């Protein structure tokens, strides 16, 4: 006789545990598109930053701060900021920051390169 009440409680506890598990799975599933999109944008931004390091090397350094918009192969716009700091003589520290908007959040990649203005 007393078993009927306990079976109902067991069923309710089981439903609660199952509901909690489903909420966790659905929450994780909803973040997957954001993470995939962020990873793609991060790789594109990193590629753009590396291209800018190559540009600075080819031009034998850079004299002043540069801000520009650079499109990716996918057509997304990235904001590039190149900031030179003279350390000593011809030696420069070059900070390259690439930013993008990703689902109402700003993503960012920053590379630092050191360049001797006399190198070719």
UniProtKB/TrEMBL annotation:
Keywords: Membrane, Transmembrane, Transmembrane helix
Listed transmembrane segments: 6-29
Protein's name according to its UniProt entry: Type II secretion system protein
Protein species of origin: Selenobaculum gibii
Species lineage: Bacteria, Bacillati, Bacillota, Negativicutes, Selenomonadales
């Amino acid at each position: 006789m007393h078993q009927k009440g306990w079976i109902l409680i067991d069923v309710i506890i089981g439903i609660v545990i199952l509901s909690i598990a489903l909420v966790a799975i659905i929450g994780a599933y909803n973040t997957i598109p954001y993470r995939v999109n962020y990873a793609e944008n991060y790789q594109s931004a990193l590629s753009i930053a590396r291209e800018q390091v190559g540009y600075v090397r080819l031009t034998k350094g850079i004299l002043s701060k540069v801000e520009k918009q650079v499109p990716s192969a996918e057509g997304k716009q990235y904001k590039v900021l190149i900031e030179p700091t003279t350390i000593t003589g011809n030696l420069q520290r070059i900070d390259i920051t690439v930013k993008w908007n990703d689902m109402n959040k700003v993503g960012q990649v920053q590379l630092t390169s050191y360049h001797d203005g006399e190198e070719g």
